[in-house]
Amino acid sequence: MLYIAPSLLAADFSDLKGEIARMEDAGANYLHLDVMDGHFVPNISFGAGVIEGIRRCTNMIFDVHLMISEPLRYVDSFVKAGADIVTFHYEAVNNPMATLKAIKEREIPCGIAISPRTPVEAALPFVGLADMILVMTVEPGFGGQTFMPECLDKVRALRRHAIKMGVNLNIEVDGGINADNAAYCTEAGANVLAAGSALFKTKRPRSVMAAMREAGREHPFIG
Ligand code: DX5
Ligand code: ZN
């Protein structure tokens, strides 16, 4: 199944409630929430307080993408705020495996994200352990950047590895995703598409989502 995850970073922040409803009505599956700390990435977005506030507006699955240093220090506040899955960055911690285990102890699904310069070998040991692997297709930190197709080789390697291991892994791609490149992503084995600009900066998010779903149907994983 293909999951579409609008990234709230691209929303009109003066009307979060309306923007979230717009995505929910258009058929989104997850709400992708980019938390940036101005330290791990050179930008600051929003934190647990905003997530707690918008939790009251929707039952959508909150896919919380932590682009922060020391994620373990803050993870409980995001769980309490209403996160449904928490994803931290491989590059942000000294011991990613221990971090994953510590987050899973909270009995919340946990994902691990890799930035464009991190090789896929870093993520392979997490297949079967992490609930999701997020492959960044731009440098983390800002919305509205250009998709880096070379990152899809990592998606392909992860999907192959997951199939070999018999694991039903969610692989999310994030950064510059739109209706035109969605097919390359699904062909490579991604099944969660995070998209900010392509969904929030249009008056017709429903059509964009429909085009993404069609891409997924017409272009399944090619091995
Ligand atoms: C980038 C974020 C992405 C971003 C996606 O650091 O993790 O989720 O908001 O936005 P677009 O789709 O505009 O690249
Ligand atoms: Zn993100």
Q: Can you describe this structure?
A:
By secondary structure, the chain is of the alpha/beta class. The chain has one domain (3-218): Alpha-Beta Barrel (TIM Barrel), CATH 3.20.20. It contains eight helices and eight strands; from the N terminus they run βαβαβαβαββαβαβαα. It has helices spanning 16-25, 48-55, 71-81, 96-104, 152-165, 182-188, 197-200, 205-218; strands at 3-6, 30-36, 61-67, 85-89, 110-114, 132-136, 170-174, 192-195. It has an eight-stranded parallel beta sheet. 45% of the residues are buried. The structure holds D-xylitol-5-phosphate and zinc ion. D-xylitol-5-phosphate binds at residues 7, 9-10, 32, 34, 65, 67, 138, 140-145, 174-177, 194-198.
The count of β-strands is 8
CATH superfamily: Aldolase class I
Spatial strand sequence of the major β-sheet? 1-8-7-6-5-4-3-2
**Termini gap:** 17 Å
* CATH structural class: Alpha Beta
Q: What is the overall number of helices?
A: 8
User: Ligands in the structure?
Assistant: D-xylitol-5-phosphate, zinc ion
How does the overall form come out from the CA principal axes? globular
Share of helix, binned: 25-40%
Whole-number tally of structural domains: 1
| CATH arch. level architecture | Alpha-Beta Barrel
Major β-sheet profile: 8 strands, parallel
Q: What value does the Rg take, in angstroms?
A: 16 Å
CATH topology value? TIM Barrel
SSE class:
alpha/beta
Q: How do the SSEs run, as a string of H and E?
A: EHEHEHEHEEHEHEHH
As residue ranges, the low-confidence spans are none
